[in-house]
Amino acid sequence: MSYRALLIWLTLACAGLFLASLLIGPSGIGPIEGLRALITGQGAPGLVMRELRLPRALLGVGVGAALGLSGAAMQGFLRNPLAEPGLIGTTAGAALGAVLAIQTGLYAAFALALPLAALAGAALAVVLIVALAGREARALVLILAGIAVSALAGAATALVLNLAPSPYAAAEIVFWMMGSLADRSMTHVALAAPFLILGAVILLRAGPGLDALSLGEDAAASMGISLSRLRLQIVFGTALMVGAATAVAGAVGFVGLVVPHLLRKHVGASPSRLLPASALGGAVMLLAADIATRVIAPERDLKLGVLTAIVGAPFFLSMIRKLGRET
Amino acid sequence: MKLELQDLSVLRGECPVVDAVSAQVSPGELIGLIGPNGAGKTSLMRAAMGLLAHRGHSSLARLDPMARARAAAWLPQAREIAWGLSVEELVGLGRLPHGRDQTGAGRAALNEALHRMGLEAMRARPATRLSGGEQARVLIARALAQESPLILADEPIAGLDPAAQIDTMEVFAAHAGAGGAVLCSLHDLGLAARHCTRIWVMDRGRLVADGPPDQVLSEQLLADVFHIRARFMTTPDGPVFQPLSTLHR
């Protein structure tokens, strides 16, 4: 399959699942009725379509694309198929911010307190990462700084949980960390969109640098690639996308790890072509997983992050086995 | 395109690993950079490329990265290939400094590089599946596809079979013959003697000799720098150089 055909197929799958995401839900609105209500916005179905399902589907696309794209960029930059977007600590930082917003009760005071706190947490993580590894050219230092920041944020999150004022608050925190797209509004979409778009633009422009990096850091530098600029591009692009995605959806794992892995051989292993393909693939996977949470257990509020992990982990294991057989 | 080095030094802590090297490479030259392990050959070339912090002056290091990439290609000693890129695509990475035009000149340069390194038959194969020697040839082809007048190569022929070693030196000689220039480090003094127009000898960070092979590879220099005894003969087949034995230090 050619690269163009792959992108077309992924786009079609994404569009189809977007439509399905709009039309599947517990309120029992028929497909024709639902689409009409989406356009006219009238009555209860109009409210459901415009205020619940549309933002949910849009966030599915945005969050999925963010995880897929930043996963592909991170793997290309570190030249390691086991790298994932959470590696630089932004996911853990965003989670800490969100958890603090829940703990302090701020999130009950106004709707955007939680995503804003999560974004602040992600930003703080990035500042720490750049301060720790900003001047160092080697990728190893970036990984170590990411692990350190993740560990720090994780410990702080555990502390907050430990000191939770009530079991109710603790449960709230735990459920938020499992990741979900349920009950998000267009305000969430509007909040995340600028970060997601800016991050996507930054990461998609890193393609040639990532390609050159396939030959090692020295060769890439000799081919006109500024390694320090590329590193900042990857760190900031990933932080913007993952920070925003985590802020509105919570921690959703495995998408950023599995999607680039799955698509790599279909793009001829090229890191630059993997970027747009993984963005689309991530959106497809997340939309499908989000639909599945609604179909499998409509009344139990199955969490998105739980589902991606349950499906993703065994899938990842099978890929590792295949990788072991090949080499 | 000329490469000029003026008092080029690289310090590791207090200790100079490259010590005030002044030299130049002119079009048409294939220069063999020889010296014992740890003499500073790699550091000299990386500093000349501007990839390593240095003192002194290198005409390449002053250029901005893209202009430098069009002026000089660098072939590192570590043969890194991540991901299973096809041979053709990997060699095509050499076109990055030219905006990666896949038509016209870019395509021609790519095909020429594949042809020169004898890689046409394996252009669609993933480079990671090739043998070490084949990978080395692919990486050399990438440097050729860059079409820069200067090529700096760090032990490009290490690990190649004899035919590929000779082929590679001839490719470099042809590049020099066509108005380019090559600075290439190597440990095979025989190949250096046969193919290089000039030889630089490094010892403990200093450039201790610079001249045509038959003048540089003297008995005294070989004893002082390499601690070996060797035979250098001018034969009807060209210069022949064979190390014979080590000398006690």
Automatic annotation (TrEMBL), chain A:
It holds the Pfam family FecCD. One of its GO terms (cellular component) is plasma membrane. The chain crosses the membrane at residues 57-78, 85-102, 108-132, 139-160, 189-207, 234-262, 274-296, 302-320. GO terms for molecular function: transmembrane transporter activity. Keywords: Cell membrane, Membrane, Transmembrane, Transmembrane helix, Transport. It is found in: Cell membrane. It is a multi-pass membrane protein. It comes from the Bacteria. The keyword Transmembrane helix applies. Belongs to the binding-protein-dependent transport system permease family. FecCD subfamily. This is ABC transporter permease.
TrEMBL record, chain B:
The keyword Nucleotide-binding applies. Residues 3-229 form the ABC transporter domain. It holds the Pfam family ABC_tran. It comes from the Bacteria. InterPro entries: AAA+_ATPase (IPR003593), ABC_transporter-like_ATP-bd (IPR003439), ABC_transporter-like_CS (IPR017871), P-loop_NTPase (IPR027417). Keywords: ATP-binding, Nucleotide-binding, Translocase, Transport. SUPFAM superfamilies: P-loop containing nucleoside triphosphate hydrolases (SSF52540). The keyword Cell membrane does not apply. One of its GO terms (molecular function) is ATP binding. Coiled coil: none annotated. SMART domains: AAA. Part of the ABC transporter complex HmuTUV involved in hemin import. Responsible for energy coupling to the transport system. This is ABC transporter.
